[in-house]
Amino acid sequence: MIKQSILKTSLFTIVALIAFAANSVLCRLALDIYKMDAGSFTTLRLLSGAIVLWILVRTQHQQNSHPRFNFSTSWFSASMLFIYAAAFSFAYITLDTATGALILFGSVQITMIAYSIYAGNRPSMAEWAGLSMAFIGFIYLIYPDLSSPSAMGFLLMSIAGIAWGFYSIQGKHSKKALFDTAQNFIKTMPFIAILALITLPQSHLNLQGILLALLSGGIASGMGYAIWYKALTGLSNHQAAVVQLAVPVIAAIGGVIFVSEEMTLRLVISTIMVLGGILIVISTRYFIQQK
Question: Model's pTM, two decimal places?
Answer without folding.
Answer: 0.90
